Amino acid sequence: MSLYGKGFMIWQLARCENGNGVEVARVARAAGLSHVLIKIADGPYTYNVDRTTRVDLVPPVVQELKKNRIQAWGWHYVYGSNPVGEAQIAAQRVNELGLDGYVIDAEVEYKQPGREQAAKAFMAELRKRIPNTPVALCSYRFPVLHPQLPWKAFLDYCDYNMPQVYWQAAHNPADQLRRCVNEFKNLAPYRPIMPTGPVYSAGGWVPTESEMVEFLDAVREHNLSSVNFFAWDYGRKGLIALWNKIAAYPHPIGPQPADIPEQYFSLLNANKPAAIANLYTDDAVHITASKTVQGKEAIQTWHKNFLTNSFPNATFEITSVSGTGSTRSFTWKGVSPSRGKIENGNDTIGLIDGKIAYHYKYFKIT
C-alpha cells in the first residue's frame, strides 16, 4: 500500500486524546493526515497496553482510523539483543491489529558490534511472517555519521525510508533535509524517503512555526510523497502552535510524479521501448561505449534491441541517484537469466523541460 501525505507518530497512546479512538480519528481528519503511526512494541514486548488492566489501547484507535480512511501504521523500537523475538512480536501485532504498514525504529543499540547479524536475523524472521506488509526504517538522518548501523541489512528488506530529520539545537531544516536526501541517494539500496520531522522540545530548543513551514516546503521541493512528525503526544499539548501550522499546510495526498530515473527504470522493467523513447526530446542523443544514436526513433530501436537481444528478460534496479535541476546521475544493476549480470551501470542525463536531451550510458555485461 502506497503512502502519501502527512502523518503523525504516537508514542504513548493514553496521552493522545486520552486514547479515545473516535477523537484520535476526528483530530487526524481535521489536520488533513493521511496516516497515523502508533507505537505497538518495544523490544520483544507489546506497547500501549494498559499495565494495570492489560487492555490493549490500540485496536479501537486503528478501527476508527480505518473508518475514516486514514491509514494505521505501527512503529517499534528495536534493540537487537533478541532479534527473533522482536520480529515475532512485530508480526503478531501487525497481523492482529490489521495494520497498513510497519516501521522499525533502530538507533544506538544497533551501532554495537555484531548487530549486522542481528539485523539480518530480525529482517529475515519479520519478512517470513509479514511478507506483504509495507515496511519502513526510521533511524538517523545522516548515515555518513553512523556507519556502524547496519543500514543495508535493514533497507534490503524495507519498502520505505523514514529518517529522523530532527534539526535539534539548530535552525536550518531545509539544509538538513537536503543533506539527508543526498546522503541516502548515495547509499545502496535506495528506498523512497519519507522524512520524519520534530514536534518536541529539548534542552531549551524548540522548532519554530516558520521552520516547520520551511521543512514542509523542502519536502515538496524534493518531491517526497509523504512526511511524518514525532510526536502527537507533544504537538497536541505544549506545542499546539506547531500542530496547527502542520495541520494548515496543504501537503498533497495522492501519487506524485516519479523522477525521470525512476520512470526510466520502471519502463525498462516493463520492456516498453516506445514509452522509454517518449521520455526523450525529439533530437535527444543517447551515447554508449559502442554507439551513439540521435532522435526518438533511433533511441527506441536501441532500447528494443537491448531488451530483446543484448539483455533479454532482464530486471533492473537503481542503486543510487544524485543531482537536481537539469541533471541526474545514477548507478544501477541488472540481471538477465540468459545473458548474465550488469553490476556497474553508471548513467548521466541532461534534461530540457522535463525531457531527456542527452544520455551517457556505461555498463558491462558479465
From TrEMBL:
Stretch forming the signal peptide: none
Superkingdom in the source lineage: Bacteria
UniProt cross-references to Pfam families, sorted A to Z: SnoaL_2 (PF12680)
InterPro entries: GH, NTF2-like_dom_sf, SnoaL-like
SnoaL-like domain span: 262-359
UniProt protein name: SnoaL-like domain-containing protein
